[in-house]
Amino acid sequence: MTTPVCTSASNVATRSVPYAPYPSFASYVKARQPVLLRTARSLTANPSDAEDLLQTALAKTYVAWERIEDHRALDGYVRRALLNTRTSQWRKRKVDEFTCDELPEPAGLPAGDPAEQQALHDAMWRAIMKLPARQRAMVVLRYYEDLSEAQTAEVLGVSIGTVKSAVSRALGKLREDPELEPVR
Q1: Mean pLDDT calculated for residue range 77-87
Q2: Closest residue by Cα to residue 78 from 13, 31, 9, 10
Q3: Nearest to 40, CA basis, from 78, 5, 68
Q4: If we measure between CA atoms, which residue out of 31, 64, 65, 35 comes closest to residue 50?
Q5: Which ranges of the chain does DSSP label H, i.e. alpha helix?
Q6: Alpha-carbon distance 142 to 150, whole Å?
Q7: pLDDT grade for 51, boundaries at 50, 70 and 90
């Protein structure tokens, strides 16, 4: 004769009254809240959002409390409510980012002293004027007129490689200019 492995399961089958380990919803929440909150935290990144999610799932469970026949399956019911609620929130989330053709202007950096900016501007132009005419033209076209290397080469009637090497040499001379030392 074999004895049942799980005596509580065999006793439940013979009872006519449904099994109710939690006499009330409040006792269930009090006993299981830490475990259910841990589950909610695994579904959200923010602990406050996890608490809100659990509250919503428990409210849904409370509404259905009388209809739930097997109170041994309450954790599964609440976990399913957590998952369904989180999925609904995810689907309904508001999209705050929109694609656009033009980038918005970046937030302006704090403006410096206008006198210092003018002094820097003047020092830069003096340093550029010290460059040979060909290098000066290439630097102005590339960085002040914002032309590409190919466009600069086309305007000056030279190859792209010539533009690259001449601009590189010009920038090297500008880096060595003692008047621009405070900028570095």
Answers
A1: 91
A2: 31
A3: 78
A4: 35
A5: 7-14, 25-43, 47-63, 74-92, 114-129, 133-139, 149-156, 160-176
A6: 10
A7: very high
d(CA 23, CA 116): 77
Largest CA distance in the chain: 108
| Residue 128 and residue 140 in contact, taking contact as beta carbons nearer than 8 Å | yes
Confidence of residue 109 (pLDDT cuts 50, 70, 90): low
pLDDT at residue 12 tops 50: no
CA distance 100 to 140: 31
Q: Which of 35, 17, 115 is nearest to 82 (CA)?
A: 35
Burial of 22: CB neighbours in 10 Å, binned 0-12, 13-18, 19+: middle
Q: Which of 73, 86, 178, 163 is nearest to 130 (CA)?
A: 178
C-beta atoms surrounding 135 within 10 Å:
20
* pLDDT exceeds 80 at position 9: no
User: Three-state DSSP class for 153?
Assistant: helix
CB-count burial class (<10 Å; 0-12, 13-18, 19+) for 87: exposed
d(CA 77, CA 183) in angstroms, rounded, equals 66
Amino acid at 82: L
- Span 67-73, average pLDDT: 83
Q: Give the pLDDT confidence score for residue 114 in this predicted structure.
A: 85
